[in-house]
Specification:
The chain is mostly beta strands and about 160 residues long. Among the domains are: about 5-35, no CATH class; about 80-155, OB fold (Dihydrolipoamide Acetyltransferase, E2P) (Beta Barrel), CATH 2.40.50.100. It has one helix at about 5-15; strands at about 20-25, 30-35, 80, 85-90, 105, 110-120, 120-125, 130-135, 140-145, 150-155. It has a 4-stranded antiparallel beta sheet, with no helix packed on it. A 4-stranded antiparallel beta sheet has the order 7-6-4-9, with no helix packed on it. Strands 1-2 form a two-stranded antiparallel ribbon. The radius of gyration is 33 Å and the shape is elongated.
Length: about 160
């Protein structure tokens, strides 16, 4: 074993993270030991110290109630169309093609709602229900997860 091979072996041991390597040949024996101990990190957090109490301020007038800006819509009677796979959601078949469905469009089973691209395959997602599109829940050209809501449909 020459010096170049020994240096390579030392580099290998240092990078591999082992603590000891022994090699024996006919008339040659080498043992390489490292002093690398497993790295242990101890962290302590400072104790919680409550903020000092501020001097008593004069009582503030009671806040006036604010009317809600928009009533919360009841979506319990809508059907949710969900993504059947992971991929990229597209509302059109191409940049210069029309959108498959818009809010307010009536749909029937078999109507193409969108395309989901997964692994370079473009999968047309067809409606399984009849109704009217109330809301599109996914952004065009955005990633979607399995079972992620895509559309809200009002049954007709």
């Amino acid at each position: 074993m020459d010096i170049k091979q020994i240096q390579d072996l030392i580099r290998f041991v240092a990078k591999s993270g082992v603590n000891e390597v022994s090699i024996e040949q006919n008339d040659f024996k080498i043992t390489i030991k490292t002093t690398q101990a497993p790295t242990v990190v101890h962290a302590t957090l400072p104790e919680y110290q409550p903020a000092p109490a501020a001097p008593a301020a004069p009582a503030a007038p009671a806040p006036t109630p604010v009317a809600p800006a928009e009533p919360v819509a009841d979506t319990t009677h809508y059907i949710t169309v969900r993504s059947p796979m992971i991929g990229t959601f597209y509302r059109t078949a191409g940049p210069d093609k029309p959108i498959f469905v818009n809010v307010g469009d009536e749909i029937k089973p078999g109507k193409v709602l969108c395309i989901i691209e997964a692994m370079k395959l473009f999968n047309e997602i067809e409606s399984e229900v009849s109704g009217r599109i109330v809301r599109v829940l996914a952004d065009n050209a955005s990633p979607v997860e399995y079972d992620q809501p895509l559309f809200l449909v009002e049954p007709i």
